[in-house]
Amino acid sequence: MSIHEGHRQRLKERFLEEGLDSFTEAHALELLLFYAIPQKDTAPLAHALLDHFGSITGVLEAPVSALQQVPGMGKNAATLIQLTTSMSRYYMMHRTSSHTILPTVSSCGAYLLPRFLGRREEVVYALSLDARCKVLACRLLGKGSINATGVPLRTIVEYALSSGATSLVLAHNHPSGIALPSQEDIDTTRRLAAALDAVGVLLADHIVVADDDFVSMATSGLYQRAEAAAIPHK
After folding, report:
1. How does pLDDT run across 87-102, given as a tens digit for each residue?
2. How far apart (Å, rounded) are the C-alpha atoms in residues 173 and 115?
3. d(CA 10, CA 119)
4. pTM of the complete model
């Protein structure tokens, strides 16, 4: 057994015994790279990735094309890193049941946040609720701004009708990292509320997500919903 093989085995056993909590970012990334680069010391590459992207968060959220620009990174290793982030998002999404009751804005935000984990582009989700605020469905409606042609309002209305929604919570992200609704977001929300009202569906809220934070347009007063049927703020 080579010195590298012995190091790999020790790092794997340490993870199995302790988890990742005591690992440095470099050791955690080195361990992950073991499974894409089986016969090479991955420590220098782990450090190179951290130097290039600034943190393990930057590494895990980098696209495959950017990862491959770091010397020593092949497509398999870059794909594994991107898969790790996508799998984490997939896991968080599927922890919650489709029968979950979301009676408040905070609970809706907490339910939706994992769907934006690691997203580098703007995406739009719609959460369908029945009259008791039970989740009927939650679907990614598309990539791109709802203010442009990425996700037409018609698509959102058709989804609300097909899912049998009594009310709908819309959510999109700002990859820039600032969860502040723009004037375009506000104007689009008002147009969507009118379109949904025409088919008997309440737009309960529009949530803007950035990193691990979100802003409720209804709570912040940027969107005036029908209070008789609104989701409580807290």
Report:
1. 988 887 776 655 689 9
2. 10
3. 33
4. 0.70
